[in-house]
Amino acid sequence: MAKTDSTGSTWRYRWAHRQNVRRVSTFRGAETAWRRRDDELRRLRALAADFQGSAAAGAGLPLELAGDEVVLWALPAAQLVEVRHTPVLPAPDLAVAPPSGPLRPRRPDGVRVTDAGMAVITSRRLVLLGGRGRRDWAYGRMTGLSHDPAAPVTLIQVLDRRRTSGLMLPTDAAADFRFKLTLAFADAIEQRPAVLAQLDELIAEHAQLKPFRPAAATPAQARLSARVPGGRRTVAVAAAVALLVPAALVESDPSDPTGGAEVAVAATPAPSPSPGVAPVLVRPAVSAPAPRTSPKPTKAPRPSPTASRDPRCGAPDNPLGYDFCGGTRIRRPATEVCDWFDCTPEFWAGRGYLVQCRDGSVSLTGGRSNACAEHRGVRRTFGK
């Protein structure tokens, strides 16, 4: 008869209930992150298809436009920045991938603010209408363009200016500014279709990453380790202690008065005799101590604790073949990984490789700056 609690439910049913709650929570977190990214990519695709300006949009601005020049976008809160040490910036490209992390409202080292005003993107140039004057960056004269991945700063190099300069915008407007500047530059070089094709490819790749609803856990899948407080981790620690304690006792066995010397001498082969000379058997002396002038016998090698170490190098027992012994990093774990390991709440939303956090949970954020941030950091990396 199965052991039951006061509510009448067996421990297997309680285990299945906890597993299903955790799986559903993990799936919903991953699905929310996936939908957020999908909505952003589709918004950018629609914006890229309909992005255009008009001469009327520049009405009221203290900016003289050329005959075929139109205003595409304007932001009243922008700062002009300059770099003390001029770097070599990469050439402008048409990359439209959103930033990997949130931007911080800070000014990078070596960058100083020299003016503030309104940033205007036109079909021919980027303009800052500042309090000290106007600063232009014509698309046709751009030689370098760089967006800071951690700060809302965009640096630009042009042919007719020696010092590198650019704009610093509010963090909530930086991503929109960068995308629209890329569209304006693409129009200037007649490459708008390339931007649309890139967005279509990103949407198709992201559709393949849509998380699947996990299968429901059944009471029959519960293991006996679920009845132990701490689960598989407690069983693994107990097994390791059970293997290491006998090895430690063998190393410190006080019942061997010879300290293993007799075994060592008996195991040491005698030198090969010369031809024609009968071999002499050497019997180790046990009762009489060896003279002080004789060489000290070599002790037998002590058993190493690592000989009895788990072949998975401390990883829990699992049929997936995952261990801590090195090997190839696991970036696409099996769908049943959370059946064998204690996954973090938003496991499937991770974009890295499989790691174990310091609190024992398993995360898919290896290789990222925020890996296991809410679980005391990364402890070990899984391999296969």
From TrEMBL:
Residues 292-304 have a biased composition (Pro residues). Residues 257-269 have a biased composition (Low complexity). Residues 252-315 are annotated as: Disordered. This is Uncharacterized protein. It comes from Micromonospora acroterricola. The lineage of its organism: Bacteria, Bacillati, Actinomycetota, Actinomycetes, Micromonosporales.
